[in-house]
Amino acid sequence: MGEIGIYHGNIVFSKTEKELAEYRNGYIVVERGVVEGIYERVPDRFCGVPVRDFDSGVMIPAFSDLHTHAPQYPQRGVKTDALLKEWLEKYTFPLEGRFSDPEFADAVYDAFIGDMIRRGTMHVVTFGTIHEQATGMLIEKLEKKGIDAYVGKVNMDENGPEYLCERKEDSLSVTERFLEKYCANRRAKPILTPRFAPTCSGELLTGLGKLAKKYDVGMQTHLVESLWEKKETLRLFPDCSCDTEVYEKAGLFGHGPLVGAHFIFPSEEDIRLLNRYSGYAVQCPEATVNVIAGIMPTALLSERGVKLGLGSDVAAGQSLGIFSQAAKSVQLSKIKSFYEPENKVVSFAQAFFMATKQGGSLFGKTGSLEKGYAFDALVIDGLSDEFAPLSPVETVERFCYAGSADNILARFLRGCEIG
Amino acid sequence: MGEIGIYHGNIVFSKTEKELAEYRNGYIVVERGVVEGIYERVPDRFCGVPVRDFDSGVMIPAFSDLHTHAPQYPQRGVKTDALLKEWLEKYTFPLEGRFSDPEFADAVYDAFIGDMIRRGTMHVVTFGTIHEQATGMLIEKLEKKGIDAYVGKVNMDENGPEYLCERKEDSLSVTERFLEKYCANRRAKPILTPRFAPTCSGELLTGLGKLAKKYDVGMQTHLVESLWEKKETLRLFPDCSCDTEVYEKAGLFGHGPLVGAHFIFPSEEDIRLLNRYSGYAVQCPEATVNVIAGIMPTALLSERGVKLGLGSDVAAGQSLGIFSQAAKSVQLSKIKSFYEPENKVVSFAQAFFMATKQGGSLFGKTGSLEKGYAFDALVIDGLSDEFAPLSPVETVERFCYAGSADNILARFLRGCEIG
To answer: Which residue of B has its CA nearest to A335?
Structure first.
């Protein structure tokens, strides 16, 4: 019958952006790491297979983090008084500069991956730094762990500090070596990563566009993340009508996943272009309230059919926990709706959908526990009070709002328990 | 020499709203539960006294929660999609109704107090319910634990559900019995608690004003917490120029602590009146983003000399951790400053000041580790990375932004280790 696992307990996952599926005392059968089905009792054909019982625990899909900066991990939850410009120039750029030291990178990236898994995230899209060796270590560590990931060696050749600015030719040649070396990876794949338009010359972007086509690889960047960035980009690229067009014109779209972080101030044209290439817009709630001013019009983008995910955006965000970002996405939508009433409030069901099934779709069949999805799953517990027991869905809600990594009792990656 | 404790480690507390004091490898001497002094080495006069070593740990003052609802504890982090009106009528009022059952109250209040202490809060101002017996259990449990507290039996005789609306005479007589029974408490003291103007008749408020004078007891309520409440109050009390004046006219001010929760939409007159009676305005960041629309103008109120504290406001807020409310206070000030630029951003130092020294001043000499303050303290650790060690102040910052109760290694209440 092949390699089969059977797990008993409560089960919650997103059916649609509006609806959470809830099973009490269900049995989930996993075959070769993929969900075979959910049953009220174990089907006869599986009799004899031992059942792992999670009792009151709730099985949920593992989370997907669609935008973060692994090298900024040491800065999480500190330097929080600084706003974007000072935060970048005084703290974040100097920290990234330290990744010319492989020993430092090795220690940071081990800690980053360990913390990410501990918090239940098993799929990630992350920036590295401009450094070839350090970013190579990051992608190799993720591949070795079997984590679905897209990892980018950062490109920037303008308007950054000297120690982080590359010569255009070097930036392109190093990036090509990085693609050649890792494009055959099974799990952790390379992705083109121009930091953002203000730090990239048109020639650099066009060069990256050629690599995108040659290696059929996607791209990530920061898209309309702030009013300053939106204005500055149009000043530097006067022939473009919006931020997103800068990358399309450079030939960076249509060759793999397209990930736009923040997408807080999109124009109609930004939305149209992102949708045309089935791109993902990534909300990073903690980053928004720490260093990025403004709140993504999540409900509006959802209505417009934009694919949405959540990102921890460490270290602009202070924690790698995507589960808590889901709660914060709902909260920010309430604040935005207060100040800009044309923006609807996002439901918890929708935020959880972004954190799991919709964000996970970037990596394939992940982010749900429906038949055919990878059994990348968490078991959460310890959230209910005896005097006021919670339903499985309420358990998930409290986990996202007020839980911690300690509420995760078990973690599964394609059917194997890890962490 | 009396009962003396000496503790070695790092020490951080608020000097002023602008400045955090930081000591590395200091010795803090505690005499009869009160800080005697902080030293670089142990003074000769204390030689022979054993030193408790917290090594890399950071000693900080315990937190003060100036607004919460102990009976709503079972609802933390669930029903989060509901906004204020539905949240109250469909979930919160029915939950409070259950406190006619002393067994339920007993279980909830034990869990509430345990969780509060676990998260490092040792001073609290809390609503009970309208129920005499249940609220009596809450104040007795807090007194027994030695927690500095103000506990209110809720008064409401209008515009609430039948099962929570009292007859005015009963509300007053029960409240007077509550005051008589507990006003001699050493630690957990009674406080008058009209729910808010829309649910109290003028006669009830005037009756409470007489009790305030007779028993020299203070009051707490929800003040200008929403645009609806502000408007509704002026409709119901047309002879008052602002929400705050309703309670002043009823004679409720000037007899003890004055605690106004939320204070999000104060008029000039609200601010003037609160200051005249040295009242506290309590920001509840989580509640604000969950069910209460709007953000307190914290920086502006601080400039106007208003005394500020933080509140968990469970279950509108989802967690009893005041340390995380400090981070959220900074974050909300950034959002408010984005939408209303005349509002300045609050620094982490100021938010920590609100969470400890300023909020703690409501209870006397608590909330600091300066000479003469009660040694109500926490030891936090496990927040630093070997590859990027944090300063003591940064450790506190990361704790508030990304830490959990598990980072609290030890808790002291007036010099005795608890919890």
So the answer is: B289
